[in-house]
Write a structure and sequence with these properties.
Number of strands: 0
Order of helices and strands: HHH
Helix content: 40-55%
Distance between the termini: 62 Å
Number of helices: 3
Radius of gyration: 25 Å
């Protein structure tokens, strides 16, 4: 089968597509909505707690200090 993307311009069009699906002529495959226009930092804000962020920072500092050497 072939997959195509259709941009619906009217709510009646969606009803027609759903009717075609009910007749087993097509299958509706909804794509996950993407967040456009937001920076990654805005989308991830609050994903981890302040304590987790602090723990990660401490671990990174420890790792970095282990590799410090004068060249």
């Amino acid at each position: 089968m072939e997959t195509i993307t259709i941009e619906l311009k009217n709510s009646k069009a969606l009803k027609l597509i759903e009717d075609l699906e009910a007749l087993s002529l097509v299958r509706i495959v909804r794509e996950p909505k993407t967040v456009k226009g937001k920076k990654l930092s805005e989308r991830l804000a609050g994903a981890i707690s302040s304590k987790e962020a602090s723990d990660i920072d401490k671990e990174l500092e420890q790792i970095r200090s282990e590799w410090k050497r004068s060249i």
